[in-house]
TrEMBL record:
Gene source species: Marinobacter salexigens
CDD domains hit by this protein: KDPG_aldolase
Name of this chain's protein: Bifunctional 4-hydroxy-2-oxoglutarate aldolase/2-dehydro-3-deoxy-phosphogluconate aldolase
Database matches in PANTHER family: 2-DEHYDRO-3-DEOXY-6-PHOSPHOGALACTONATE ALDOLASE-RELATED (PTHR30246:SF1), 2-KETO-3-DEOXY-6-PHOSPHOGLUCONATE ALDOLASE (PTHR30246)
Source organism phylogeny: Bacteria, Pseudomonadati, Pseudomonadota, Gammaproteobacteria, Pseudomonadales
Residue stretches in coiled coil: none
UniProt cross-references to Pfam families, sorted A to Z: Aldolase
Length: 209
């Protein structure tokens, strides 16, 4: 379980948070990100197209890690796993979800924003977390503060992070990957400007290197 999440986080410094508005966009959009060097993608269940998108992107990009985001209950967890999601991202935690995830194949990256939520996950053996919503929950200083009481916890911050603020998070010892929707701006996706998506991915990876 932890090994899977560590492989996912180790595969990319940037994890795009992707919300599919038109089902036909899923594959070309993710292919464009892959061409731009992105190896990990989180496809949210915020639209009715999320599950089908996960299925088709898994098939089209067998070399990428494809996860489901915005999973908030066990029923969605099961559906995402059945669609082929290799990992699951939640915006927050419940004891029920944390327990369920330990018995499932798709590994969980649980969302936390407080020390209490961290303690809940920590007690069950979790050491990798999503820090959400990163910018409003304290940003870089909050993650620095967490490294005191939770020295072996690693975080993937998301929520309000942009191309020019990603580096500040990645400079922290407890951050290896940052997530965000800045890689898939609405206007470029609506215009099906896949070359632009590849360019943003390449530019973002260049900026943080
Ligand atoms: C998430 O679920 O991780 C966020 O919606 C991504 O946040 P952003 O849209 O502010 O990048």
């Amino acid at each position: 379980h932890r090994e899977r999440i560590r492989s996912v986080l180790g595969a990319s410094q940037i994890m795009p948070v992707i919300t599919i508005k038109h089902p036909d966009d899923a594959v070309p959009l993710c292919q464009a990100l892959f061409e731009g060097g992105i190896r990990v993608m989180e496809i949210t269940l915020r639209t009715e197209h999320g599950l089908r998108a996960i299925e088709s992107v898994r098939e089209a990009l067998p070399e990428a890690w494809v996860g489901a985001g915005t999973v908030t209950c066990i029923a969605q967890y099961r559906q995402a796993e059945a669609a082929g999601a290799q990992f699951i991202v939640t915006p927050g935690v419940t004891k029920a979800l944390l327990d369920f995830a330990l018995t499932s194949e798709a590994a969980l990256l649980p969302g936390v924003s407080t020390a209490s939520e961290l303690m809940l996950g920590y007690g069950l053996g979790y050491r990798e977390f999503k820090f959400f919503p990163a910018e409003v929950a304290g940003g870089v200083p909050a993650l620095k503060a967490f490294s005191g009481p939770f020295p072996d916890a690693a975080f993937c911050p998301t929520g309000g992070i942009r191309r020019d603020t990603a580096r500040g998070y990645l400079d922290l010892n407890n951050v290896q990957t940052v997530g965000g929707s800045w890689l898939t701006p609405d206007d470029a996706v609506a215009a099906k400007d896949w070359a632009k998506i590849t360019e943003i991915a390449l530019g973002s990876l260049r900026d943080i290197s």
